[in-house]
Amino acid sequence: MGKIEEENRVFIKKILEKSALLTATSLLSFLRIYVHIHRRNALRYFFILIFFLLIYGLLPALDFPYGIQSVRADVIIDSSVSNNLNDNKGQPALVFINDTVGYMFYRDYSPSDKGTCGYSKTTNSGGVWSANVQITAQTDCVGIAVWYDQWTPGDTNGNFIHVIFIESGGSAYYIRFNTANDSKSTEVQALNATSLSNVDKIAITKATNGIIYIGLDDADTAGVSKVRKCSINCDTTEGWSNAGISTPLEQTNDPIRLMPLANDNILIIRDDISLEDIQSKVYTASSDTWDPAWTTVDANASDSTTYLDTIAATVDRYTNNIYLAYGANVGAAGTAAIRTAIYNGSSWTLKTDVINASNTITNLDIARDENTGDIYVGYLRGTAGSSMNAYYKNSTNDMSSWSAERQFNTNINLDLYWMYLNRKSTERIYAVHEYPRNGNKNTLYGNTLVDLIDKTPPL
Q1: What is the H or E stretch that residue 103 is in?
Q2: Which CATH architecture has domain 75-451?
């Protein structure tokens, strides 16, 4: 067999493997990567792909220049979710550990476990989700956020999802969830308090040296807002201590996000409600200190008193660059915007708006394709309180420009609440959104944005 014939055979074999997914996005993404590796035969491979697109009836879905788009029906994850606007505001909350297995963490609403935090799991790429599985027996959980081991640069084998949740009228708790067997550690009081509620803000991350950090911003009681850390014995109260001699946070209830930096350091990003600024501070692990002053990312990011948690970030596992998306004028019809910025380890660079001069935006999230570096931003846009829809855009050039807007919810014109993306992946970008479906219970819906192709070179 000649060299060209063998290359054709290998290419067709891989197309057949991927076409079993029956997603046009997968096939086009695969072609893009394969052609990059085998440039000299690009035209031949292109016509082979067109042949298979025609066979599977996917060619009509072409949406140049950004790729092939296939619209899937919304999938119900849970139709009995807490209806309180603040209970499920925590981010991140959605994790995909590979192409098929994903977890969505949230506060449920059922007569037998009202107020209990747990997760639903999928093992078929988000097509079907399990019933809610409790991770705590406490019935007053009012907020939850997670961090997956492999979101931290340098960790390619970790199985743990690290979970922080708030107890109403009490403290913040930590659980370590093992995706290898769906077991969990004993919940531990990681931050002692007496007055927390679902309006308080939480955050969690893992540093490159494996230390877990949690953040809490409380508006009710002085001295509660702080960042805590744990390196060993994290399932004991004694394992947790304050990060820094003094806390970087105030008694303000500002939305916060924690992100890992190089050299074991941590970045905290906040939306300063009083100043209407987006700001950041670096925690230097070697000296156990925070920057003395906040760095201003954006001094003109007007807030909404209702839709506060419009800030999301993801990290590049290869460069440690932080990709940030945040809302401005989010509750204002006709002037809402989603802005972006990149932190390179020493300074911020403002990038191109995802959307601006839009009708109301109420929530957003961000994700990164670790194969190509493409950034995805999902958001809820429309008329708040009555007619919202879920959209996304993607950028292929470090957020310098954005694709056309794409709507991905098929249950349209509803009062949608929250948006969640799985922050990074080499295999799938999935989205979840929430809306009040049946009286006092909300529904979580899911949908795949893009089925990614791992660009490991073909044999």
Answers
A1: strand 102-107
A2: 6 Propeller (2.120)
